[in-house]
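#struct-help
A.M.: can someone run this one for me? Single chain, 297 residues.
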Amino acid sequence: MREAVLFVHSFRFLRRWRRCIVWIGSGLPVLLLGSAGGLYLQLRGGLPQLDGTAVLAGLGAAVEIERDGSGIPTIRGQSRLDVARASGFVHAQDRFFQMDVLRRAAAGELAALFGPTALELDRANRLHRFRHRAGLALAAAPAEDRALLAAYVAGVNAGLNGLSAPLFEYLPLRIAPEPWQAEDTLLVVYAMYLDLQGRQWSRESARGVLHDRLPAELAAFLDPPGTDWDAPLQGEALPAPPPPGPEIFDLRRQPVAAAISTPSTAPATFSAPQVALFPTGPAAESESGSGSNNWAV
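D.P.: on it. Structure tokens below:
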């Protein structure tokens, strides 16, 4: 009898175990499908609106946004304020995370997104006090420019709030994006300075030494503010300064490099900086990088 009882219990255990396996096997695909669907809806909800009609408060008239085959928008409106507002809407839906990183990079606030990893860069960039400078520039701007910025800011925040789901970049960071402010637009300009010219301090220092040590005419010839070869967006090209004669600087008596490295008023403990007027080494990273994207309104 004992063996029979044990066999019955074993059979019931196996039957229950098989039933659990069936439930797990049938439920796992449903769970995976549901998770994949939820992830798809999450990612899809963070994509910009590409067609249809959107309601944007504050517009004076209807604005048309047309995208080409590459998704590049062309914005048409009845006023600059309307175009600025619509531009902010499109920028936010297309690139708000990149905009957020740019403003935080210039202000030295990246650690709020990425944690202690960004502290060193934040400390270096906060020395410039760009957020404070952006506030001063905004306060000194004409009323018309401030109105354009205000319309753009309103459009950015409307575009961000118009997404049906949070941007996917913020999901692993477990943080919600903060609203755009007027000074953030100026911080993006400062961020481009750091990106394109932030590592040119050695070159700027060399140019300063050149102008400090050489006669003004020779320094202007070696480091001209412009030449006939330039193509300025505004105004005319500047004429190239003429080469100075021997009455200004006589190369037969003193080389240019010697004049830069050994000033006549240098103290006994003076250590001349190493200046290369015509460097032959590889270009700095900030000078050898590729171009960037552009927006045209």
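A.M.: thanks! Residues 14-45 form one domain.
D.P.: also worth noting: Confidence is low (pLDDT under 50) at residues 264-273, 275-280, 284-288.
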